[in-house]
DNA sequence: TTGTATGCGTTATCAG
DNA sequence: CTGATAACGCATACAA
């Protein structure tokens, strides 16, 4: 790698001082320089293939124009759309997005956070809201850096949160099932230490009680296909016979549930109806096509980014909680209750 | 945001010179400092919550310890595993991975590259191998920065490439179909300007000719479900009646094909068999479960990262081409030819 | 083993 | 409108 071209090289070729080059090359200060010299500088820069050094600039301005995004699992299809939403609004403002994937691993999470902090990101968007493990949120609090929580983490650390309306989603799902004649419904929830799990489980309990349907809740060990497959054990072995409908903690759990149902010789939706959560990409291509609660994932990401930007510009965070509306997408995994 | 703690603050508290702090905090030079002072420094650093400034360090060392990864579409499920493979080996070496998603948009691609270059990434991994549009590769060439191509882009710019064995994958797929009795097979390939499309299409032509089966190739406008859905037009309307089997350019195209088949009242695999390509996550959860060519995606990413690291350390790139073995995963989307 | 001095490439402040 | 100069936070060659 040959030595990179610096602002000094450009200055020499353009026969001006490097301060002038700096002014010429920054949109902010461009109008402070003579049109003629501006041209000369631009030409010189192009000729030399000058690429400004963001590290030097950041060091000087103490802004990296960089945002750190920490997510627990890139392989979960709900995250790409969220990231896309984030990037969409951030890139438009000249920010670069640094995505760190932690595989839901605590120590990775913490070291990713640390690494991003070292890079002096101007803010964080965190999608890792476990209730029991406040480490990252606490660290963020201690580091006194702008943070927006996404999707999970209601009320943690007093940071703003953007998410879909979990309670209403559950209401919609349950209403749909009841309308189809289901009277025995089990909620195959996510792990108890996710904040979303709690919101949804509480909403389920409340709605099911109010509607007067027989109900129960089982907790999967993760928000994955495997965990969904496994939690079916508990549900199938549960007292009171097999429920006629299941509300899953998310679409992956729903997929695991369906896999297991099939393995047990039960058909979906003829024998058991299943409702997912999130409406992740490809939900309609599974078998059966998933009836699920649609989350505006892209918009959630975009809104989080906007909130963060506002916080950065204002110099302080509003403790807003933005809840975006959800809707029910009825596809093939739900049907009339078997009588 | 209060002023950040610097190495000077630590030095003052520990009552040593900042140079000593620097030495104490870097693994490389740690043994140059007295055990006692080391302790003092560490304590002071912890006490103050010192976080080293990567920009300042990078500016001084002219290494950002950062790798840029440019991918065309985060929503395509083949990329998360690849990214994971990349991160796995890079993080172990202390590198941070900057992922830029371009949505297959030329100008976004170029500006993402530029942005990464400004950040002085130590190298690039590019997954954007279109044949007609050399811009990024050319820019990379001009910038004289270490690059490894991934998945696509055979032979572009003389950069190393890591990919799966496309030709062999096609051979496996075709052999499987022929064994099932298919004699009229169409290749629903990707866009003509992807290098993978060419390798696969050529292999298909060769293998089908050699096997003596009736065959044809149609080109989808993208590697997406929609493009797969649309290219079915051409195939269904094609002369010589409907083929009994299709080899898709990738799994998404396969999904689109199947959607369309269903829309036309054709069943898969009873009426038409479909083979996908990549074995993307969830391939087994679709309906029917996808028979597809398995690509070792994670390993492809990991190998690309290793190759890049070697190039960076050596100061020059080997022009290696690494081709990883593929295999056929037979699931539900292929069956005996209708006679 | 530790301190001193310098420079990495920018931008901001201050003169002119 | 432009030039000179300092400073951002750190690592390192050199001196002690």
Automatic annotation (TrEMBL), chains A, B:
GO MF annotation: an example: transcription cis-regulatory region binding
InterPro entries: HTH_LacI, Lambda_DNA-bd_dom_sf, Peripla_BP/Lac1_sug-bd_dom, Peripla_BP_I
Gene3D superfamilies: 3.40.50.2300, lambda repressor-like DNA-binding domains
Gene name of this polypeptide: cytR_2
Pfam families assigned to the protein according to its UniProt record, in alphabetical order: LacI, Peripla_BP_1
Statement: the UniProt record of this protein carries the keyword Transcription regulation: yes
Keyword DNA-binding included in the entry's annotation: yes
Designated name of the protein: HTH-type transcriptional repressor CytR
PANTHER family per UniProt: HTH-TYPE TRANSCRIPTIONAL REGULATOR GALS, LACI-RELATED TRANSCRIPTIONAL REPRESSOR
PROSITE patterns the UniProt entry points to: HTH_LACI_2
UniProt domain HTH lacI-type: residue ranges: 5-61
Coiled coil: none
Keyword field: DNA-binding, Transcription, Transcription regulation
């Amino acid at each position: 790698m040959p030595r990179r071209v610096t602002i000094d090289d450009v200055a020499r070729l353009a026969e001006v001082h490097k301060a002038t080059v700096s002014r010429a090359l920054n949109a902010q200060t461009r109008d402070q320089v003579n049109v003629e010299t501006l041209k000369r500088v631009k030409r010189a820069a192009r000729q030399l293939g000058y690429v400004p050094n963001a590290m030097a600039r950041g060091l000087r301005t103490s802004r990296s124009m960089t945002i750190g995004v920490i997510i627990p699992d890139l392989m979960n299809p709900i995250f790409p759309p969220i990231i896309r939403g984030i990037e969409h609004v951030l890139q438009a403002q000249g920010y670069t997005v640094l995505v760190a994937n932690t595989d839901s691993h605590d120590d990775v999470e913490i070291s990713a956070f640390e690494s991003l902090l070292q890079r002096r990101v101007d803010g964080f968007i965190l999608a890792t809201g476990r209730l029991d493990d406040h480490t990252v949120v606490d660290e963020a609090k201690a580091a006194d850096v702008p943070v927006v929580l996404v999707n999970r983490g209601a009320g943690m650390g007093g940071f703003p949160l953007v998410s879909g309306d979990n309670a209403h989603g559950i209401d919609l799902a349950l209403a749909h099932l009841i309308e189809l004649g289901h009277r025995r419904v089990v909620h195959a929830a996510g792990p108890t230490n996710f904040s979303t799990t709690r919101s949804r489980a509480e909403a389920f309990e409340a709605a099911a009680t109010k509607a007067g349907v027989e109900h129960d809740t089982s907790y999967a060990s993760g928000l994955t296909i495997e965990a969904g497959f496994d939690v079916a054990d508990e549900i199938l072995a549960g007292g009171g016979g097999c429920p006629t409908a299941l509300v899953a903690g998310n679409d992956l759990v729903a997929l695991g549930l369906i896999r297991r149902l099939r393995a047990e010789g039960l058909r979906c939706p003829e024998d058991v109806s299943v409702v997912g959560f999130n409406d992740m990409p490809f939900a309609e291509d599974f078998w059966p096509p998933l009836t699920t609660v649609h989350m505006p994932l892209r918009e959630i990401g975009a809104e989080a980014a906007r909130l963060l930007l506002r916080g950065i510009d204002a110099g302080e965070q509003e403790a807003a909680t933005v809840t975006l509306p959800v809707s029910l997408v009825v596809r093939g995994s739900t049907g009339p209750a078997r009588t």
